[in-house]
Structure formats: structure tokens, C-alpha cells
Amino acid sequence: MEKEKKNKHPVPSGEAAEGMRLNKYIAHCGVCSRRQAAELVKSGQIVVNDEIVLEPWILVGEEDVVKYKDQILKREEKKIYLLMNKPKNVITTSSDERGRKTVLDIVGGKVKERIYPVGRLDRDTTGLLLLTNDGDLAKKLSHPSHNVKKVYHVALDREVSQHDIEKIAKGLELEDGNALVDKVGHAHGRGKNEVIIEIHIGRNRIVRRIFEHLGYRVKTLDRIYYGGLTKKDLPRGFFRPLKEKEIIMLKHFL
Q: What kind and span of H or E run contains 47?
């Protein structure tokens, strides 16, 4: 009969300031429920730090290596989805070597998980930005094959002629290829210098370059729609968690 082995650092609940019960840890790794995890431990199927353990209540920490069927178990990270109405003069990066304010500075310490922005908005561009730690969703939203719809409200330094609107709608040939636009038109109820433009391409500074190509200077650029998400009830400089139905929409219907 195989000699029973135990965790190198068996710590009963209540005798350590840190750590998670082994059965709870296994459940958080997505293997099974806590109750089922306890049975796995009791039946000798769980190895901690290369030793079989039989007590589900043992606490494990980040330094411990937990295995099931010779596979290392890692806790599934809690998925975070934040929608931000980015203000002007904020960098869309995790950090900035020049000390400029970033979108993560706005989030501050309100989220303990490591999150990052999906795509980029220029420092001077405002509007909708998604921040998450869901790499699969971020990749999906960033890939051009998914045709994620983005709508911008653009204010120019002068009135935009109907002729130029039609040229933009047909697609301008820029230095890096044709700039395809889904829809474009003057902003309803606004001056002729304000335009609403809908695109799905995600090339660098594409909206600004479209108008600069025709000799216009962009005064303000605001993303007002992103993949089904809008700025409703979200003031500039604030953020909110996505609702469950919004997460489902982004994951399964885009």
C-alpha cells in the first residue's frame, strides 16, 4: 500500500493569515464544485508540492503547486469588464514613462485585477473605451474579421461640404490603403462642421487621417458607440462595469 503523503506545509483553517482552502482553490480553477473537489482530495487525486494530500481544508497559497491528473491547476482569474468614457489628455496605455495620466489612473485602486484597454484612443480623443482582463474577448474585438462597429462624432475647423462627405463615403485612398467607411453624414441638428462617421476598420488614427487628407483639422473627436455599447448615463471621466447582457452580447453576438 502506497505510503500516505501530505502537503509540505499543511496548515489547518484558522492557523494562517493567508491562503485558500484546497477544495475551494480547486473549484476556482474550474475543475468542479467545492463539494466534488473535497471528494477528489479525500480520494488521493490531488497533489500539492509533489505530495498527495487528503485534507480538503488545508490552506494553499500562491507559492504552492497544486496538480490534478499531473496537470498544474491555476485559479481562473475573475473576469473584469469596464466601460469608460475617456476624457481628453489621457493616455490609453497601462503606464507612461513620461508620467502622463493614463486610463488606469482613472480606475485607480478600485479594481485589484490587472486589466488593460482594448485597442487605443489618441490622447486627444474622447469617448468609449473598454478595459478588461479577458484576453479572448479583447482579441475578438480587435480583430478586423469581426467588423466591430464604431461611431465617432467629429468636430472640424470648418464646414464639411457635401461633396467631401460623398468622397469619404466612397472610400479615400490613404498612404496605407483604402479607408472604408460604413456611414458618414452631417450630425443631425448641429452645424455643418460636425460629422458622424461609422467605421469598423481599426487602423491607427484612421478618422483623423480621413479628414486631414481632405484638408480639414479635427478639433474634437469623440467615440460615441462601440460594439453595441453607448455613453448613456456615463459622464466623461467615469467608468462602470458592463452589465451581464452587455458581456453576453460582446462575447456571442458580435
A: strand 46-48
122 is catalytic: yes
Q: Please measure the distance between the N-terminal and C-terminal CA atoms of the chain and give it in whole angstroms.
A: 56
Identical fold at 1-76 and 81-252?
no
CATH annotation of 81-252: 3.30.2350.10
Please check whether residue 41 is in contact with residue 22, taking contact to mean a CB–CB distance below 8 angstroms. Answer: yes
CATH number listed for the domain at residues 1-76: 3.10.290.10
3-state DSSP assignment of residue 25: helix
Residues of the chain with pLDDT under 50: 1-17
**Would the pTM count as exceeding 0.70?**
yes
Extents of the domains making up the chain: 1-76, 81-252
Q: pLDDT of 38-93, one tens digit each?
A: 999 999 999 999 999 999 999 998 889 999 999 999 877 788 999 999 999 999 98
Q: Tens digit of pLDDT for each residue in 191-200?
A: 999 999 999 9
Enclosing H/E stretch for 206: helix 206-213
From the candidates 122, 124, 164, 233, give the one annotated as an active-site residue. 122
